Amino acid sequence: MDSLTQMALGAAVGELVLGRKIGNKAMFWGAVGATIPDLDILANPFLSDAYSVKFHRGPSHSFFFAAIFSAFAAYVMVRYFNSPLFHKKWWRLMWKYIFTGLPVALGMGILIAGVGTLSFTALLTLSLILGFTAFLAYRRSPVHQQNFEQPDYRQWYWFYFWVIATHIVLDICTTYGTQALWPFTDYPFALDNISIVDPVYTIPLLFSSLIASFFSRSDSRRKIFNRLGLVVSSLFIIFTLFNKSQVHSVFEQTLETEELVYQKTKITPTLFNNLLWYGVAELDEHFVMGYYSVLDEQAEFSDMQFIPKNHHLLEPYPHSPDLRHLKWFSRGYFSVEAANGVYYWYDLRFGNIDFTGGEPELRSPFYFELIPDREKGELKVRRTRPEFRGDIGEIWSTYWERVWGISAVRDQ
After folding, report:
1. How far apart are CA 104 and CA 87, in angstroms?
2. DSSP letters of 60-110?
3. Please, what are the averages of pLDDT over each run of 10 residues along the chain (412 residues)?
């Protein structure tokens, strides 16, 4: 999931575990702890493009890591809260200005980069949100020493364990693949029931935590609002599992209606919603891909496309380590094309948001160039980000039309 969602979940879980003892500090440290697993991306400059997609959501996203890191984090927190530095006024004042300055700096960066590309309404909305965040940070960051119950080592340990464990569980619900049982297996667990960004899941967590933070740690309303957000978001996760089951039945029925004999299938929700679903099925020589919104009048997948596998193009490179990483990552859902002496690899597990055109590189956000080294029998892999060539306003407009059950495929 996106970082904002993970921080919101971490804040809510942190409040659930230690909010009664340390108040808003539980939310803050919960949000911080929830970002720790995703810091594995800092290793990307030192890894190949192929191995980096395997390393992300690898060791740092395992329950083994949660158990080990929590022991270290608990030790650090006990030492920190008992150190003279924690009680220094200048130290608290410094963090007050840091917390206030971060949203201000982010807002200035967005304004500078967004002028000419974002609408006035979008810029104004972002400015108001970040300005309000800076105001809250300034007003809510204490300078004077506060009275609270010092958690012991065991309490800090379980605090961080549950913050990181819930991060892992939520990532398992997406399509990318999470090595939750590393080092015992590198199998990437993926339930494919929620998009990596879904406001319906995130917003209840954000607002409930924000409201709860205004009450004192002993106020029962604080606990009620925080738990309400966790309950609502958890119920939504349960709904997405049920929704996926229903949509999967529709996809299988569509394939049977089309008399397509398939080997395996995968479905996943598209970005920002749980209404429009993407399905891919492996045939003998092709993959077939299609879309279905639960709001469509007909309970069937449409916009069907057949993509040649072309896996035979890679047979001369059976020992290429980067190729092994890509095959592991894609779980077999990939197609290959060749042009000008270069191979192009498309991971087909992820849906698209552009229904206005047919550029092949827009089939997936994971699109790689494979440059052959025929002497060594290896492939040099370079990840390439797909670029939307059409009008971004039209792309988003047709996408949301398709989400709401209106066919957005334009006649070419």
Report:
1. 27
2. GGSHHHHHHHHHHHHHHHHHHHTSGGGG-HHHHHHHHHHHHHHHHHHHHHH
3. 93 96 92 95 93 95 98 96 86 85 81 68 78 81 75 97 98 97 97 96 94 92 97 98 98 96 96 96 96 95 93 90 93 93 93 70 76 82 76 83 71 38
d(CA 18, CA 162): 11
> What is the pLDDT at residue 410?
41
Placement of tokens 């592991």 in the chain? 328
189 strand-pairing partners: 178
DSSP assignment of 173-195 = TSSS-B-TTTTT----B----S-
Question: Which pLDDT value is given to residue 87?
Answer: 80
The answer to whether 360 touches 345, Cβ cutoff 8 Å, is no
Residue 314 Ramachandran class (φ > 0 left, ψ -120 to 50 alpha, else beta): alpha
State the DSSP string of 105-166: HHHHHHHHHHBTTB-HHHHHHHHHHHHHHHHHHHHHS--S----PPP-HHHHHHHHHHHHHH
* 15, 212 contact by CB (below 8 A): yes
DSSP string, 238-306: HHHHHHHHHHHHHHHHHHHHTT---SEEEEEE-TT-SSEEEEEEE-SSEEEEEEEETT-SSSS-EEEEE
SS3 217: coil
Q: Which two tokens stand for residue 173?
A: 């619900």
Omega prior to 183 cis, within 30 of 0: yes
**280, HSE (Cβ side, Cα atoms, 13 Å):** 27
Q: Are 375 and 245 in contact (CB under 8 A)?
A: no
Looking at residue 154, its pLDDT comes to: 97
Rounded CA-CA distance 17/202 in Å is 20
Q: Please name the residues in contact with 267: beta carbons below 8 A apart, sequence gap of 6 or more.
A: 192, 244, 247, 248, 251, 277, 278, 279, 280
Q: Which two tokens stand for residue 83?
A: 């150190």
Domain layout of the chain by residue ranges? 3-240, 258-403
Among 176, 145, 198, 89, which Cα is nearest to 364's?
176
Nearest to 34, CA basis, from 155, 136, 171, 195: 171
pTM of the model: 0.90
Q: Which CA distances in Å does 397 have to 23, 47, 208, 278, 402?
A: 43, 38, 31, 18, 9
